[in-house]
Amino acid sequence: MHTTADRPIRCLIAKVGLDGHDRGAHVIARAFRDAGFEVVYSGLHRSPEEIVRAAIQEDVDVLGISILSGAHDTLVPDVIEGLRKAGAFADTLVLVGGIVPPEDERRLKELGVAEVFGPGTPTGETVAFVREHVRERV
Amino acid sequence: MPGRGENVDPDAVVDALLAGDERTLARVISRIENRTEGVRPVLARLSRHAGEATVIGITGAPGAGKSTLVDGLVDAYRERDLTVGVLAIDPSSPYSGGAVLGDRIRMHRDGDAGVFVRSMSARGRLGGLSRAAAEAVTVLDAAGFDVVLIETVGAGQNEVDVVRAADTVAVLVQPESGDDVQLLKAGVLEIADVFVVNKADLEGASRTVARLEEMRRLRERATTDRSSETDEWTPPIVETVATTGTGIADLIDALDAHRNHLIETDGFATTARSRHAATIRALLRADLEALLETTLERQGGIDGLVRRVEAGETDPYAAVESMVAPIEDCLEDR
User: Fold this and answer.
1) B34 — contact with chain A (CB < 8 Å)?
2) Which residue in B has a C-alpha nearest to residue A7's C-alpha?
3) Residue A134 DSSP class
4) Integer angstrom CA distances of residue B310 from A120, B292, B315
5) Is residue B1 pLDDT above 50, yes or no?
6) Helix A102-111 × helix A72-85 angle, to 10°
7) Secondary structure class of B321 (helix, strand, coil)
8) Which helix (H) or strand (E) holds A38?
9) pLDDT tens readout for residues B275-295
10) Which residue of A32, A50, A54 is in closest CB contact with B98?
11) B282 Cβ contact list (under 8 Å, min separation 6)
């Protein structure tokens, strides 16, 4: 059994859709790097399909989706659906960062998002959450 | 998905990989990176399916435009109906061990099953990266990709070792990237089969080309002095503007020409032999190291030994001698 203790945690930080603000994505990518994670950044304007394929090819433990545009309602479910179809959902800790109203947050969590981090969340909190919840795999 | 769980049949993993299962391919590369037990029988089987792919290494200083050029190459190969595997290697932080692997940014290939991009980090291992990268190339090759591109920052020995897994190495040089002495210093230039002056639309590009030509002439003279071999390869210098795709076709021609040169001069057999030798050595070293680790643990671990040295009960030389001697004894009559 290979635990995450003796290998770096791999993450994909993804920007989906038309939202062009990626400062938050950069901040979290850097925080993850400093925590010893291996971070792949998707770049802007990706489709859910592209994100799913990148998550699979890069074999990431964590998929962090950063959305500020309000389009999380349609884009995040598409990503989760894609991961499920590919059989990769059980292996992937899906996080959402950005501006998400509470009722949407509830719905996203029902769909399988592990946690939603709003603006101003200390990066240490997100790092700790990942360490605690990342799924063991072999 | 096959490939999960410790006691997975390596044949099942290999079958899934050869059938084109992307998840299995990705997971096998993770296992290579993590040195997971059980990956070796898989690699042993896969190595028999490898050997068909064109393997190209692309290296150069940060900011030279490697990722954009790789992206252009992927496009050009896809237009030629060839499938492409990309291995993008980035350094890891010496402080945290973490890494930002950025090459996905330029890749927009929604749903193109003919492209597989994998980012890999050095994970701070001296020498280990080159083996992991070479093994990942074997896996992509066996998975049936026509072309495998290895992209790495040309910053040191680690990177030079990595591109040795390629049949053809393209070194990117930026216009005005320092004076002649800088070009002389850069050991990475010596491994070039093809020189690429990217950003050729920038001022100073022609001067850089002229410097490379001069350097190449000197190198040529040095090799003719050394040997009378007539089948020496002279690295062509190709000018590209990766952002617009200018020169990409010329670059592919140059890469193909080098490949043909290898075929004509039996160069493939030579590089394959040296690669097999490197693999055997690397495996031997890794296994012996593991054996020594076990021996060390049995002797109470490194801390115990350090304490004994500290207490004056032994010295580092005697401690090592006591551990290695029994191994030597065992091997003596074999």
Assistant:
1) yes
2) B34
3) P
4) 50, 22, 8
5) no
6) 10
7) helix
8) strand A38-41
9) 888 888 888 888 888 888 888
10) A32
11) B127, B130, B131
Q: Is the pLDDT of residue B217 over 90?
A: no
Name beta bridge partners: B99: A38
Residue A57 to residue B116, Cβ atoms within 8 A: yes
Q: Name the pairing type of β-strands A38-41 and A62-67.
A: unpaired
Question: DSSP readout, B168-190?
Answer: EEEEEE-TT-S-HHHHHH-GGGG
User: Tens-digit pLDDT profile for chain A (138 aa)?
Assistant: 344 556 899 999 998 888 888 888 889 999 999 999 999 998 888 889 999 999 999 999 999 999 877 777 888 999 999 999 999 999 999 999 988 888 899 999 999 999 999 888 899 999 999 999 998 765
* This prediction's pTM: 0.86
Cβ contacts from A onto B, under 8 A: 97
- Which is nearest to B35 in space by CA: B311, B262, B299, B287? B287
Is the minimum CB–CB distance between A20 and chain B shorter than 8 Å? Answer: no
Q: Which amino acid is at B80?
A: R
Q: How many C-beta neighbours within 10 Å does residue A8 have?
A: 24
- Output the CA–CA distances (angstroms, integers) from residue B254 to A36, A85, B169, B183, B314, in the order listed: 40, 42, 11, 22, 60
Distance in Å, alpha carbon of A37 to nearest chain B alpha carbon: 5
**Token digits for A129?**
């959450």
CA nearest to B134, candidates B202, B43, B210: B43
Per-residue pLDDT tens digits for B52-87: 999 999 988 888 888 889 999 999 999 999 999 999
Residues 6+ apart with CB under 8 A from A100: A67, A72, A108, A116, A118
Taking only the tens place, the pLDDT of each residue in B95-119 is 777 777 776 766 666 668 899 999 9
Q: Which of B35, B100, B105 has the highest number of chain A CBs within 10 A, making it the mutation to test binding with A?
A: B100
Please say whether the beta carbons of B3 and B14 come within 8 A: no
Q: What is the ipTM of this complex?
A: 0.88
Task: Provide the shortest C-alpha distance from residue B43 to chain A (in Å).
Answer: 17
Q: Do B117 and A54 touch (CB under 8 A)?
A: yes
**Which residues from chain A sit within 8 angstroms of residue B96, using beta carbons?**
33-36
Scanning the structure block, which residue is given the tokens 């252009």?
Answer: B72
> Rounded to whole angstroms, how far apart are CA atoms B29 and B27?
5
Contacts of B36 in chain A (CB under 8 A): 2, 138
Query: Of all residues in chain B, what percent carry a pLDDT higher than 90?
Result: 38
Q: Is the distance from CB of B68 to CB of B106 less than 8 angstroms?
A: yes
